[in-house]
């Protein structure tokens, strides 16, 4: 299969003059030249043109593109690198879109947009850990769930979260035991709070849900930031033991 210079130019959304220029500078030669000097391009040339156009979109000059392609030993590896770069760019653009949508929704609802909501997603700061434990889809599902909420719904969810943390801290200060009704009710609320799209709890996967709750419970003690969230290390240990017991006996 091959395409004439006009056909390829139309498909690639460039001009025939651009393709002729790429040929003149040694960046993209046609697979053959037909009668009357008409250039024809095969699949290999089409793939190379795609690489050239992708690199051009990054702002790279033609001379630098030529060097990159000349030094590239494995074309497939180069394409994989480009896919990774494009995915990062897509995530950056998606983040900007979310920020502007959040501001627009806030204005339409007559409330002030919150910086912590505007400039990060539901679990952006925990991205690496989420992806490592539950995969990229879990991260994306959580963020989509969060950004589908209105500004008021996001604030209500944050308030509910703060109330749960405050109740845990209060129960710890007042000496509740991890196996007490009070602690186990808090554990049930906590697990329900974790039922966010993309998580095993939301999917109803019992074994993975138990593993998730247990893992998070350990993190609350091991990570100093979480320990401070629950008042102190003793408070975090109380939450851990209550959640572990709930996972063993009630999930």
From TrEMBL:
The keyword Cytoplasm does not apply. Keywords: Coiled coil, DNA-binding. The keyword Lipid metabolism does not apply. SUPFAM superfamilies: Antibiotic binding domain of TipA-like multidrug resistance regulators (SSF89082), Putative DNA-binding domain (SSF46955). Residues 1-71 form the HTH merR-type domain. InterPro entries: DNA-bd_dom_put_sf (IPR009061), MerR-type_HTH_dom (IPR000551), MerR_fam (IPR047057), TipA-like_antibiotic-bd (IPR036244), TipAS_dom (IPR012925). Gene3D superfamilies: 1.10.1660.10, Antibiotic binding domain of TipA-like multidrug resistance regulators (1.10.490.50). Residues 69-106 form a coiled coil. PANTHER family: HTH MERR-TYPE DOMAIN-CONTAINING PROTEIN, REDOX-CYCLING DRUG-SENSING TRANSCRIPTIONAL ACTIVATOR SOXR. This is MerR family transcriptional regulator. It comes from Nocardiopsis changdeensis.
């Amino acid at each position: 299969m091959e395409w004439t210079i006009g056909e390829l130019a139309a498909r690639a959304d460039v001009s025939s003059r651009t393709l002729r220029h790429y040929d003149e500078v040694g960046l993209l030669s046609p697979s053959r030249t037909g009668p009357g000097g008409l250039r024809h391009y095969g699949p290999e040339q089409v793939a190379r043109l795609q690489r050239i156009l992708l690199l051009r979109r990054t702002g790279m000059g033609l001379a630098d593109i030529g060097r990159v392609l000349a030094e590239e030993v494995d074309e497939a590896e180069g394409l994989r690198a480009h896919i990774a770069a494009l995915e990062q760019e897509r995530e950056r653009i998606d983040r900007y879109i979310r920020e502007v949508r959040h501001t627009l929704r806030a204005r339409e609802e007559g409330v002030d947009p919150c910086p912590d909501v505007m400039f990060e997603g539901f679990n952006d700061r925990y991205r690496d850990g989420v992806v490592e434990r539950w995969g990229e889809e879990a991260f994306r599902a959580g963020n989509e769930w969060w950004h589908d909420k209105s500004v008021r719904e996001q604030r209500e969810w944050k308030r509910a979260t703060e109330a749960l943390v405050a109740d845990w801290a209060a129960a710890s200060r007042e000496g509740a035991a991890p196996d007490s009704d009070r602690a186990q009710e808090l554990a049930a609320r906590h697990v329900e709070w974790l039922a966010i799209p993309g998580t095993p709890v939301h999917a109803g996967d019992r074994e993975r849900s138990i593993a998730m709750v247990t893992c998070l419970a350990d993190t609350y003690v091991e990570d100093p930031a979480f320990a401070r969230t629950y008042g102190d290390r003793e408070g975090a240990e109380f939450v851990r033991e209550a959640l572990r017991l709930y996972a063993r006996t009630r999930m």
